[in-house]
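This section describes the prediction task in plain terms. A model, or a person checking by hand, is given the sequence of a single protein chain and must write out its three-dimensional structure as a string of C-alpha cells. No templates, partner chains or ligands are provided. The sample shown here is typical of the held-out split.
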Amino acid sequence: MIVVVGSGPAGVMCAAALRRRGCEVTLLDGGLDLEPERRQRLDRLRRTDPETWPDDWLQEIREATVAKAGGVPLKLVSGSDYPYRDVERLTPFSNRRCSSRPTLARGGFSSIWGAAVMPYASRDIEDHWPLRVADLEPHYRSVFERAPLSAVEDDLAAGFPLYSESHPPLESSATADAMLRSLDGARGELRRRGVTHGRSRLAVRAQDDDSGPGCIYCGMCLHGCPHELIYNSATTLDELRRDGLQYGGDRVVRRVEEHDDAVTLHCVSRADGVTSRIDAERVYIAAGVLGTTRILLESLNAFDRTLPMLDSQYWLLPLLRRAADGDPSHEALHTLAQLFLEIDDPAVSGRTVHLQLYTYNDLYRRAVRSTFGPLGGLAQRLGAGLLRRLVLVQGYLHSEESPRIDVTLRRGNAGASSTLELRQVDNPTTRPTLRRVVKRLHELRRAIGASPVRPLLRVAPAGRGFHSGGTFPMRETPGPFQSDLLGRPHGLSRVHAVDATVFPSVPATTITLSVMANAHRIGSTPVED
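The expected answer:
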C-alpha cells in the first residue's frame, strides 16, 4: 500500500497518477468540511432559481467576510471559517511579521482559492530548477483532464500555452470588456514596453457539461460559489474514491519513520486525539508547504533548525478608470479575476511580474465602510461613482524579489505538539521593484484605460498570498534539507514531498497549476525499491 498525505491539489493529482499506474493508494488528511447545515442550504439553493434565493442568507454570507483597504484578512466559504479550524490545536504555528497558515480542510486551500491558473515560463525557472518546463508540459495537460479551464486563446498563449483542448470562457464584465478593447488597441505599445495581456484563466466550469450546469453569474464567487463551479480538489478526491482509492479523513500525520522496506506514519485523530500508526511501502506527502515542512522536520528530528521558505510577494493596487462602464452593481457577473497582465521587461524586473485585474464586486463597498468606520456610509454615497470606475490589481513578484520566511520547528514541552515558528525576512529589492511596476502602469495608463492610485498600494506580509514553497528544494544532487527530482529529502528513499515544499523558486504566475503538474509528474514516475 502507498499512502498520500493531503487532499489538496498536489495530493489528489499525485494520487491520480499513482492510481493510473495501478497502485493501491490510501489518502489521509484532516478532513474538515463545510458544516452539514450549510451544505443543506447550498443543496436547496441549487434546486431553485437565483431570483428566489433568500436575501437574509445571502446577506449573512456577505457580511461574514471582512473587507478592508488592504484586502480580505480571511476568505470564508459560504460564511464558514472551516478551512482554518483546528490548525492551532493540532499543528501549532506562530507568525512574526508574516501571514502564513496551514489548513486541515478536505481539498486543502482549493476550498477557498481564487482559481487563477497559469503555467510557468522557462525564463522564470531555468536558473533555479533541475527541471525544464518541457518536463512539466505533459502533466499540465493531465491536470486539465480532471480540472476545468475557462480561458481564451489570446496573446498570452505564445508565452503561456493553454495545455487544454477544451476551455470554454466565462463572460467578462462590461468593465473588463472595455479595458480589453483599450488593451487590444494599444497592443503594439504594450509589447514594446514588455506587457502581454489577455483574458483571465480560471479553473471554473463556465458552461453546462456532463458534470453539471455552468456559471450563472450570481456574483458570489468570492464568498464561495453556491454551485461549487470553482475547482476544489475534494471533487477529484471523490472521483478517485469511486475508482478504488481508500480515504482516511480524520488522520493528521505527525511524522514518518522510514525502515528498509516500509514507512511508518504516526498519526493523530482530529476528532478525538487518539494516536495511531500506519505502515506503507512508500509515502507521498502533500500537506501544503507548512504541513509538509513540519512533518519532515519532525521526522528528521531537526528541531531548532531554521530553513528559508520562499514566497511570491502579494500586493494590491487600485486602478481608476476615467468613466464608469454602466452600473456594475446591477450587472450579472462573476467576481473572480477578469484580465491578466504579464510584465516581462528587465527594466522593471528580472522575472515575469503577474497581475490579475478584478472589476466590481460587493467587497468594494464593504472595504469603504470598514476603512471609514462611522463615516463609511457617507463616503460610500459620495464615492458611488468612483466605485463604479474602480479596478483592483492583485499582483505577484518572483521569489527572487520577494521577502522570505524563516521556518523553525520548536519542540513542545511535556508531550505538547511542536510549534512551527515563522518569521519574515525582508528583501531589499522588493520595494524598488514594486515602484518600477507602478511606474510602468502609470506610463501605460492610456493604453490600459485606467490610472494607478499610487498612494493606495498595499503590500501584504509574506505568506499572505499563499504562494510559498522551497523549504526542501529539488536539486540534481541534493544535500541536507534538499530533495531529489522525485521529492525525496536527502537521506530518505521511501518518503516523497510532492507539493511546493520542493520548489527551488516561486515564480509570480500563480502556483497551484504547477504544484498539481509537478505532483502528477512525481506520482507518474515508477520508483525501484
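For orientation: Residues 33-116+134-261+312-465 form one domain.
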